[in-house]
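Limitations

Structures in this collection are predictions, not experimental determinations, and the ligand pose is part of the prediction. Treat each record accordingly. The example that follows, with pyridoxal-5'-phosphate as the small molecule, is included so readers can see exactly what is and is not provided: the inputs are given verbatim, and the output is the predicted complex.
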Amino acid sequence: MPDVPQPAQQGFSTRAIRAGQEFDPSTGAVVPPVYLTSTFVQDGIGGFRGGYEYARGGNPTRTSLETLLASLEGGTHAFSFASGLAAEDTLLRAVLTPGARVVMGNDVYGGTHRLVNRVFVPWGVELTTVDMTDLDEVRAAVTTGAARILWIETPSNPLMKISDIAALAQIGHAAGAVVVVDNTFASPYLQQPLSLGADIIVHSTTKYLGGHSDVLGGALVLSDPELVEKVGFLQFGVGAVSGPLDAWLTVRGIKTLAVRMERHSSNAQTIAEALVGHPALDAVYYPGLPDHRGHDIAARQMSLFGGMLSVALKGGSTAARSFAESTELFQLAESLGGVESLIGYPTEMTHASVRGTALEVPDNVVRLSVGIEDVDDLLADVLGALPKS
Ligand SMILES: *Cc1c(COP(=O)(O)O)cnc(C)c1O
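Predicted complex:
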């Protein structure tokens, strides 16, 4: 292996481009090749080259993504999966046993709630949902009924609620829980949960890490040796791994994460500020606005405020639907975090699975994933699509 400098000592953008990305030693190819192979020749029985045996257990392209993610989040290990939910499933299996309790925010990603509520609860797991911004409520919930997992997602979706990771990690640990942070919305460029006390980071790499809306993926990043061992075993033993092309595309996306997040954040900040006080709107939800609830915590634990914002329309669901269907640059689609701007109507799209539960989203809310196009064009698109008073 070529001798590369210790990644942890370098800056974020340098690591985003170099960690796990050694050039190919046999040809000098600057970009490591995609290893499209399911198995590896052995030099005699058990003589593995670089430890590779069969691709469910490991593939060099997946290793390069995992090395990169561990470096960016400051964990000793990362494991990549076929989707964010596949990563979550592996984590839940690694930590839970029947009778164990999960405490999670009442505003977590709908698919996360569905996975626990519809897959794990029938297997004997218990689920409590709480308001993560209310530390007393969280403390009571993790203490009563001994929580095994405290699951935090911040900023949350779609109202951009901010939870205090450091304070929650202390509360979780005092109760003996494993503290998980879904860092999908912030990305490691804006927020580093392990350094704030979390035990495990979950990512849907489908979003900002991949960044180009062209590949699904998920990841876990952690340092605790016992959990590393369990998660590593289940990644191999259950097998929801990412394929080499998916891993390669994700690595390619991550190289520009820093510059993309800067632009996502500045575009969203500009649009949010321009929308405050608009006559068609009841509220603008963006953590970068000084009077957003949780702004001070966000300013402390995030370096910038990200590219996601939501608005509540005065005209109720009719106005919200019409707005979501009227923009042009903001395309009507699920998902987020790509270079192109997207718009969504959560109650019938991303959050349809939680209608009628405590996680239900108001029907006048529209969510914007602000891309990295020219902000003047994006703002004109939004202003043109809002109802005229
Ligand atoms: C999309 C998303 C997930 C699920 O990831 P998939 O890649 O779609 O499986 C989990 N958490 C958050 C916050 C997400 O936005």
